[in-house]
Amino acid sequence: MQYGLFGEYGKGNYTLHSKAGRGDGDTHYAGGGLLAKWTNKHSVYAEASIRQGRMSDTATDILHDGAGNGYGYNVHTNYFGVHLGLGKVFCYNSGRSLDVYGKYFYTKRNGVNFETGTDHYNLDSVTSSSLRIGARYGNTDKKWNWYGGLAYEYEFDGEANGTVNDTVIHSASVKGSSVRGEIGLRMDATKDNPWKADIAIYGYGGKHRDFGGNVTVAYTF
After folding, report:
1. Using CB atoms within 10 A of its CB, is residue 21 exposed (0-12), middle (13-18) or buried (19+)?
2. If phi over 0 gives left and psi between -120 and 50 gives alpha, with beta otherwise, what is residue 174?
3. Residue with the larger pLDDT of the pair 63 and 188
4. Nearest CA among 65, 132, 69 for reference residue 101
């Protein structure tokens, strides 16, 4: 059984397309949480995490009035998330492994209120609920090990709603199917080295189109 505390920080840019037009924005977040992972003798594992933090969101032309005019905002709010996963690792004599998994992710960003000129905006909370099924293949016999992965992901929610002066505004949604690819390098902790690290880049295609990267560093004991 493995468990621990973690902190996280992230920053990104996005583009949102809706019936009213296109909007652009950038966001950054900081928070932390708890994680746990259990693995049996057959290399079947179950994992879970819970996280909470605060995020800032700056957008331009993300909201549109009846005349088609675009407006932006700069807001700060809290977020909350959980994830559950189940998988199995197949190990081969060549020093390679195949990790086949299914993972569920839930994230909620609280709603916000702000003023633009004489208008009052009330944006509802945004919830993401997604299922990812995929596999990751790589080597396991070196200090730093490479891997590559491919997964199918389906977003069940991801709709943004709100009002301006109590009038409903056009909603936008990322609900639908996407494909996720990743490549990375990983260093696992050993009895002589308590540090572990993971450096990866990833990309999405389909309903969700995105690319990015992440760096994870952990101390085990």
Report:
1. middle
2. alpha
3. 188
4. 132
